[in-house]
Amino acid sequence: MSEFVFSIATPSDDEDIRKLLRDNPVPGDITISYERSPSYFHGCGVMGDFHQTVIARHSADGLLAGLGCRAVRSMFINGRATDVGYLGQLRVDRRFQGRGLVPAGFKYFRALDQDRRTSGYITTIIEGNRVAEGLLVRRAGTSLPLYREIDRLFTLALPARSFKTHKHRTVEVRSAVDDDLQELIRYFQHYGAEKQFFPVLREENFCPGSARTRDLRIGDFLVAKKAGQLCGVMGLWDQSAYKQPVVREYSGLLRWGRHLYNGFARCRGDKPLPAPGEPLSLAYAAFTCIADNNLEVYDQLLRSLCTLAAQRGYGRVLAGLTERDPLLAVARKFPHLPYVSRLYTACWKEKSQFHDYLDKRISHVEIATI
Length: 370
Hints:
This protein is an alpha+beta fold and 370 residues long.
């Protein structure tokens, strides 16, 4: 009999899943446990209209040994709306690491992939995670999908503070209202298609109770107009009601320099980094869409979003941009803490054409949905 039993998670598994996430944080300069309260399943809908959480239990005692997620959502691929998969949230309880759980789990995922919902997936691995890179990328076995790196993904933690706007700006920024919805959808459809993996957004995604945009309202978006024309959109998405990143440990320079950093932060009016055991106070810069990658428009929107975040009491704004995106250079000029991952396409051998199908468009990863 196999050491592990795999299944699709149900609400009866909720408590065990939340404990596994709490007890097995993700290492890095800031070690973080990505927790889910009051229910793990409340945050699953943001990953896609279709989602599955696979769990593995130890056959001998029923303990939860690991989990991983598979989701499918509509994204723009080469300018066309396409159902694309996402593989993520892979966690193995430390008590069961090194016992063949990951290859066995991907064998289960491969069987699920036979439903033909998608021809390929995207996924990310934190830069410097040699164990994951070795297991999933360099020494992948026959049960694992083929990984191909396509970009580096930078998640920048910007301080939520009031930033001055340029005196001679030509861009006007305001909060969106309900009457803007149809114009925003048309704008996303047109300019979102210019980037690889930008989510396909429809009016129903912004109806009350939509799981895809849980707790994100039209009033959380900022719109930029130039000469009366819509030229940029950026949302402020607070997911703290169902997803809580909790700091568990600092390493490297932050381990010794956090108090010094916090002293400077207080002088600037920024919120300090939390102590281990405390949650990060943050919101996401979500569904950022800038016509023609206009740097001035992006700069004004990001300044305005950080100001809005400060007014609402958040400590930081997380902005996600890939290395080839020209907007990254603008975001890096803001004070920030960087968090770097590598973006991959992933598909099993019989669907390897997914790797080669992608054209050279700049990748966009909606970090609030992964």
